[in-house]
Amino acid sequence: MEGPSTGDEVTEAPDRWRLTGLAMREAARILRAEAASLMGLGGLRARTPKRLVIVPPDMRTCDATIADDIYAGYFVFGGRALATGGRSPFALEPPSEAWADILHGFSWLRHLRAADTALARANARALVDEYLREQHGPAIRKPSVAARRAISFLSQSPLIVEGADHVFYQRFLRGLARDLRTCTRAARVASRPLGRLQAAIALAYAGLCCEGCETLGRAATKVLARELDRQVLADGGHVGRNPRVVLDLLLDLLPLRQVYLARGLDPPEALVRAIDRMPPMLRLLRHGDGTLSHFNGAGSTPVDHLTTLLFYDEARASPLQRGLLSGYERLQAGRLVLVADVGAPPPPFVAHDATAGCLSFELTSGEARVVVNLGAPRERSDPLALPARGTAAHATLTLDRASSAAFTSDARGLSKLPAAFLESRFGTLLISGPGEVQTKRPEPLVLEARHDGYASGFGVLHERRLVLGAAGDALAGEDRLLPASGRAARGVGAVPAALRFHLHPSVRARRAQAGRVVLLGLSNGETWQYVLETDGVEARLEESLYLSATDGARKASQIVVAFDTAAAPVIAWRFEKLTAS
């Protein structure tokens, strides 16, 4: 397909001096953090716990039937499966990096606990013992995996240690201590702010749940409060703008608050604020099928986890309609829901998931997805991971097959050196993009937005107007290209452009009326149509991909409207329902 499969060009390569400045800032931060670590500043010192005193709850849903698969040596994680044939899964070559991370994170122990049988308990203890004895592979040393493993060991400790002998119990505590040491280092020196927050959460759990870790817990609480205030925005979004991060953080923060209360301690105010703010943001980003919007690195949604979180939301508030700090807007009329990305790029050091999808939107009718973005593959090493972050992978406008933002991978010449250093610390960062994004809601069902991501390369602004029908049976849209400041005298030049509307794989699409109309059959039985209202252009159906399915990438279609900006600087279109389900 055109777009993500072929890769986008970029509007312009990232500025060399900006890249160099960011690299120098990160190098200086590393030196300061390492110095503080050597001097033992901050009180983050992990000791071997004496014993476990409280078990934190685990809000992740579980399935006892998975325990049978694990007992049979069949491990299915991250969309990949491995049959061990009686060997230890920790001694085998993992089928993918994501699979290895999940295996070594041990969150799957909850399924064995749900089985609640002597066989499941014995199997869990044997697998943990195999891990404690093997202790090799790159996944073990990842701070994010160590943090997840520490929390999993604590929350599933009754399954692991009840009835165990003293030798195993001490080996288990020593293994936990190793993970806590990894987390103490990550909380100080990890490059990614999210990594520092995840480490602080794990350390706070340990400080509350383990005798002998009280000092560590008090220090971790301070780090936790600091990182939450820095990373959770006032509207409940995460500073990196990835919706899935909000979900995953809340799954850990809600039980952590309960543990503070169970120990007779007041949770830090930053924790309480974050927990209060995040559920309304999740509701803003949630569609009628129960999944989150696919923006800025969000892939598949564990619907059961999201449903559980929102059930425990004490406020049970209505969804936010505007997330001004996070850069998301929601329009809803009846069963028709639209969520749009109207945000500028996040700060560079948290932009490892960020995408060039400004002014893209997703549309759902009831439980049926209609328009989507491609989302993100499970594996960061997937060849489609970077193309899926380009503008062409989103339901928005592209100019000359260029993205509206640039990444460190786009660096050229002397810029490659600082870009390579940054990528070694963070992964591929979105490094430049729209400097100004303006939004207006003149009426509750009307969204008007504009961005300048194409101003420097093409001298134009992209403006989009979206209007939902009050009956929830239509979406009218208009995309307009305007001269950027200082370019008005020259006008909008002749540049090839394309509007893209990626369709969910469940949508059956068929062209009609010589490309003026595309008929759409939805999974809920409804029939819709896409109608072009601008003369001189037509809609084509092209291949696309949907990367956010729970079973991996799926083939899909996209509506593409190609046009010349000089001949048609304004494109009007609409989606409308023809028949109900």
Automatic annotation (TrEMBL):
Main localization, broad class: other
Domain of life, per lineage: Bacteria
Domain Heparinase II/III-like C-terminal: 317-573
Any GO CC annotation of this UniProt entry: cell envelope
Gene3D superfamilies: 2.70.98.70, Chondroitin AC/alginate lyase (1.50.10.100)
Cell compartments where the protein resides: Cell envelope
Gene Ontology molecular function, alphabetical: lyase activity
InterPro entries, per the entry: Chondroitin_lyas, Hepar_II_III_C
Membrane-spanning residues: none
This protein's name: Heparinase
